[in-house]
From TrEMBL:
It catalyses: carbamoyl phosphate + L-aspartate = N-carbamoyl-L-aspartate + phosphate + H(+). This is Aspartate carbamoyltransferase. Heterododecamer (2C3:3R2) of six catalytic PyrB chains organized as two trimers (C3), and six regulatory PyrI chains organized as three dimers (R2). Residues 2-145 form the Aspartate/ornithine carbamoyltransferase carbamoyl-P binding domain. Catalyzes the condensation of carbamoyl phosphate and aspartate to form carbamoyl aspartate and inorganic phosphate, the committed step in the de novo pyrimidine nucleotide biosynthesis pathway. Belongs to the aspartate/ornithine carbamoyltransferase superfamily. ATCase family. The lineage of its organism: Bacteria, Bacillati, Actinomycetota, Actinomycetes, Streptosporangiales. It is an enzyme of class 2 (transferase). One of its GO terms (molecular function) is amino acid binding. One of its GO terms (cellular component) is cytosol. Carbamoyl phosphate binds at R54, T55, R104, H132, Q135, G260, P261. Residues 151-298 form the Aspartate/ornithine carbamoyltransferase Asp/Orn-binding domain. Keywords: Pyrimidine biosynthesis, Transferase.
Length: 310
């Protein structure tokens, strides 16, 4: 791998290598000193044109735990607010010698464009409604840790598929790793291209739940909507929300996931979100390990992944 732009770019072996490396690196979190010398002397720039909490902090924590130098760049308060283009910002980063650039941008395809302008590795932290590959990797890692496998897992992804870069990346990656994915949403919240995706589609959540090993709930992204995609929030929740009654339809070993941020009471009830079978906080913790693995594999540290690190 030279960049990580799309979950679809990963082969089965490459994706498995990331997950295996993440498991090895996860032990760092249990140490008294949570730091490795692996990427000492490397510079990672977090280039965020959209607001973010979990992803930005996770990438920053991952880079710092690997001893990389981290520069956080926010579009707000930078020359971007004065009209500077992505290309000119990229050339500035190139001149500063960035070894890796983590980018989140509102435009689909921005990460791939950036990769053509800089010599360093580019990591897509979310581009428009297109993809979010490290989220898919941390989701797959969480599933494998909880369920013991990915091959043959039946995964339901529920909600606003149309505007979700997480859904697209998960479908591509989970298909590569041998899981069976079903998308569940009202027809208005499915993308036009969904027929080309390697997954099944259903409009009936109650029918899909008993057959699912993993249920991933998605937030309705109202900020990306320019039209009415469902009658009311109450009606959406009635048909596609995961509440206590629907949760009871799952088999006893099934787990519930959510990439965050959650709208409690709309797509998921507080009772379900906080249950022992919910992996929501685990996903956040696992995200650091997975992003450490991706940074290590892309930036080619001079040390082994774990090294001595004492």
């Amino acid at each position: 791998m030279r960049h990580l732009l799309s979950a679809g770019d990963l082969s089965r072996d490459e994706a498995t290598l990331v997950l295996d490396t993440a498991r090895e690196l996860a032990q760092v979190s249990s140490r008294s000193v949570k730091k490795l010398p692996t990427l000492r002397g490397r510079t990672v720039v977090n280039l965020f044109y959209e607001d973010s909490t979990r992803t930005r902090i996770s990438f920053e924590a991952a880079a710092k735990r690997m001893s990389a130098d981290v520069i956080n760049f926010s579009a707000k308060g930078s020359s971007v607010s004065k009209g500077e283009s992505l290309k000119d910002t990229a050339l500035t980063l190139q001149a500063m010698g960035a070894d890796g650039v983590v980018i989140r941008h509102s435009a689909s395809g921005a990460a791939r464009r950036l990769a053509g302008w800089v010599d360093g590795a580019v990591l897509n932290a979310g581009d428009g409604t297109h993809e979010h590959p490290t989220q898919a990797l941390l989701d797959a890692y969480t599933m494998r840790e909880r369920m013991g496998r990915l091959e043959g897992l039946r995964v339901a992804i529920v909600g606003d598929i149309r505007h979700s870069r997480v859904a697209r990346s998960n479908v591509l990656l989970l298909h590569t790793l041998g899981a069976e994915v079903t998308l569940v949403a009202p027809p208005t919240l499915l993308p036009v291209s969904v027929g080309t995706w390697p997954c099944a589609v259903s409009y009936d959540l109650d029918e899909v739940l008993p057959k699912s090993d993993v249920v991933m709930m998605l937030r309705v992204q109202a900020e990306r909507m320019r039209a009415a995609f469902f009658p009311t929030a109450r009606e959406y929740s009635r048909r596609y929300g995961l509440d206590r009654d629907r949760f009871a339809r799952l088999h006893d070993d099934a787990i519930v996931m959510h990439p965050g941020p959650m709208i409690r009471g709309m797509e998921i009830s507080a009772e379900v979100a906080d249950s022992p079978r919910s992996t929501i906080t685990e996903q956040v913790a696992n995200g650091v390990s997975v992003r450490m693995a991706v940074l290590y594999l892309l930036l080619g540290g001079s040390e082994s992944a774990i090294g001595n690190g004492n």
